[in-house]
Amino acid sequence: QHQVRYLGLMENVRVRRAGFAYRREYELFVRRYKMLSPQTWPASSGNAERDTDTILAAVGISSDGYQHGKSKLFIKEPKSLFDLEEAREKRMQYVVGIIQRTYRTWKARLYFQQVRAVGIS
């Protein structure tokens, strides 16, 4: 009994019985999915609950598919979660492209500066 309460299994069962397939704290949700909305990427507003609504609206998940708790977001349908993950995967490719482009630009500038320094001396 103590272990069940300690591990939060009773809360998990209660949430699942209510029909919610997924639950996540607002801060963790925003950290994972903030790249899906231009209003929250690259920097969020600081209000995790408002940013959560912004992200869900950007992806197109209706307010019927989720519910707000005091500190957590509860998503009813697993399909909504799959849609979020699919959108994140697509956006991640874009973010990786930005990182690669920035690195290559930096590397090219460094090379140019080294070549110029050798040519001057």
Overall description:
- By secondary structure, the chain is mainly alpha-helical.
- 64% of the residues lie in helices and 9% in strands.
- It has helices at 2-6, 9-17, 26-33, 48-59, 78-120; strands at 22-25, 66-68, 72-75.
- It has a three-stranded antiparallel β-sheet with strand order 1-3-2.
- Strand 2 and strand 3 form a beta hairpin.
- Helix 3 packs across helix 4.
- The chain starts with a helix and ends with a helix.
- The mean pLDDT is 86.
**Beta-strand segment tally:** 3
- Could you tell me the strand content as a percent range? 5-15%
Count of runs of 4 or more consecutive helical residues: 5
Measured between the Cα atoms of the first and last residue, the distance is 78 Å
Structural class: mainly alpha
Instruction: Determine the fraction of residues in helical runs and give it as a percent range.
Output: 55-70%
Question: Mean of the pLDDT scores?
Answer: 86
Profile the largest sheet. 3 strands, antiparallel
Helix-strand pattern: HHEHHEEH
Provide the spatial order of strands within the biggest beta sheet.
Answer: 1-3-2
Principal-axes geometry comes out as elongated
Uncertain runs: none
CA-based gyration radius? 21 Å
Give a brief description.
This protein is mainly α. It contains five helices and three strands. A three-stranded antiparallel beta sheet has the order 1-3-2.
